[in-house]
Amino acid sequence: MTEINAFDLLREEMESDETHLRVNAIHRLKIVATLMGSEQIKTVLLPYIDHLIKKEEDEVLFAIAEEIECLATLLPGNQTVLLPNLEQLASSEETVVREMAVKSLISIANLLGEYEIINFYVPLILRLANNDTNFTCRVSAVNLMCPIYPRAGQHKDKIRAKFIELCSEETPMVRRAVASKIGELATVIEKEYVLTDLIQSVKQLISDEQDMVRVLGLNSLKLVAKVLRKDENKQHTLPIIIAATEDKSWRVRLALSKIFAEIAEAFGEEADNVSLIQIFTNLLRDAENDVRTASIQSLTKFIKILSAEKLVIIVPHLQYLAKDSVPQVRAGVTEVIQIMCTLLPKDVTNLKLLPHIIDLFEDENKEVRQGVTRAACKFVEVIGQDSLKNLIPHFKRSIEDPKWRVRIEAYDAIAHLSKVFHNPDLFQSTLEPMFMNYLKDRIAVVRENGVEKLAMLIQTYRDWSNSKLFNKLLESISKENGYLYRLTGIQSLRVLALNVAPETAADKILPILIKHLNDTVPNIRFITVKILRELASKIDNASIQNDIKSNLSNLTNDNDKDVKYFAQETLQYLHSH
Questions:
Q1: How many CB atoms lie within 10 A of CB 504?
Q2: Could you tell me how many helices (H) and strands (E) the chain has, helices first?
Q3: How far apart are CA 52 and CA 10, in angstroms?
Q4: Cβ(574)–Cβ(548) below 8 Å
Q5: SS3 label, residue 4
Q6: At a CB cut-off of 8 Å and minimum separation 6, what does 50 contact?
Q7: Are 447 and 441 contacting, i.e. CB atoms less than 8 angstroms apart?
């Protein structure tokens, strides 16, 4: 294909009436440009793209804005010829076209040298920023200012002054763009200008008449706060967030709730300031459900930066939050309690948090009951095994909970505490009877979870696994139980066999498994075949392996095709190893 043919094909495709065909043609722009060469790109292709920009639909313009960036690598040292086209696209009324053009401009800027930035790129931004007839140009300019500021040289003052000027723009869309970017600008401009110019603009935006501008300004505040020192945050940031907690728009209060912990972190040791804590407790009491929900999530981060002394101020607020009408808030309280257990002194934890834990076990919402089960587990782990006696009835109730996710949390908690305390007497008298209920749970995923946790308990309590556990598993696979429960018992026997000495597995467990090769339920035969394949690798005894092969050969003509297939495959595997 010759150079001119590639361009003619593009032009022919762009004359189609079908928009999707024209879009596809633009997505092949780099191929066409590669065939044309750099000189033809500048003299033929770019003028044609300029012509398309003036007449095409938004879908095509978006594709052009996306693909024109690819031409930069084909024009080494001449990337500035692409800027006029992208400048037009950055002025588009369609948001997605404009945003893609800005993205491409930012990418191309990385390929430009200092001379091109100073003499071509920055003037483009300033032209967009000074365009009084089209507010979309000013929106694009705002989005381009932050990435280029460190390289703007003598134009830094102009960019900074224009950005500050746009903070007072009449058009809400421009103020929104400025509010969303002012935090990013604070991270790249010189610190002195943050204090003299930018902080005033932040205050102005956060008191804007449009609530969306105030929301975006607050989201930027967390970046500004990180730039300032602790004393500067106390002077400038604290008044802003105090005002935001009293904002008439719940969206603004919601935005503050989400970022409060990040802002507080910027205060350093001043985060312990009682004023900050008071501000946050006001958000926790907010009349809007979403604000309280976001606040309780932020509280899980905020309490980590407070001293234990100031953390005590938060504790009384858990009383009304634990009874909140919104389940997500109550679930958040369980997460807060779980974290507080590790931060507060043990006596305070026991006195102040235990009553909330006990009350939340009775909650009607399953997410809350899940969360409080985790919190109770952490509480017992922190306070010690003596605290377990107060919570045993509640763990038992969780194991019998109608919701299977709650039951899983309870089994996980019991297994974790069993490992942490490593106390055989406590385990066998209290924890083990609760845990072994997994064998008869009515939901398969709960039984499977119990099987997974069993390995950890076997490794922790060797004596128990060789005697009492083995006997319990034998009971679970008796004919009186349903086949699904027997299946769980067999899978548990597998875990036991893989975690005990090979001799024990061969002497005690293997005969039981071989017996179940003749079970009347195909699924049990099928699972047993798969387990025997694993065990054969563990037991390095020719006589035992021959016994396994002999019993498996009886299943090569089994009535069930899956059992038959896996029996044949396992035999082949054993013969080859």
A1: 16
A2: 40, 0
A3: 12
A4: yes
A5: helix
A6: 84, 85, 88
A7: yes
CA atoms within 13 A on the CB side of 215: 13
To the question of pTM greater than 0.85 for the whole model, the response is: no
Q: How far apart are CA 141 and CA 139, in angstroms?
A: 5
Tokens of 335: 């997460």
> Are residues 309 and 344 in contact, defined by beta-carbon separation less than 8 angstroms?
no
pLDDT tens for 58-112 read 999 999 999 998 999 899 888 999 999 999 999 999 999 999 999 999 999 999 9
Task: Report the distance separating Cα 427 and Cα 422, nearest Å.
Answer: 8
Position 534 pLDDT exceeds 90: no
DSSP three-state, residue 398:
helix
- The predicted-structure confidence for 387-432, as pLDDT tens digits, reads as follows 999 999 999 999 999 999 999 999 999 999 999 999 999 999 999 9
Alpha-carbon distance of 416 to 338, in angstroms, equals: 15
Using one digit for the tens of pLDDT, what is the confidence trace for 99-127?
Answer: 999 999 999 999 999 999 999 999 999 99
Question: What's the CA gap between 126 and 157, in Å, rounded?
Answer: 12
Instruction: Please state, in angstroms and rounded to a whole number, the distance separating the CA atoms of residues 384 and 421.
Output: 8
What's the rounded Cα separation, in Å, for the pair 442 and 481?
12
Distance of CA 23 to the CA centre of its chain: 34
DSSP-derived 3-state class of residue 384: coil
- C-alpha span between 233 and 217 (Å, rounded): 16
For residues 431 and 414, give the distance between their C-alpha atoms in angstroms, rounded to a whole number. 6
DSSP state of 75: S
Cα–Cα dist 89/95, whole Å:
10
State the alpha helices, DSSP H only, in 327-403.
Answer: 327-343, 346-348, 354-360, 366-383, 388-399
Q: CB under 8 Å to 238, separation ≥6 — which residues?
A: 273, 275, 276
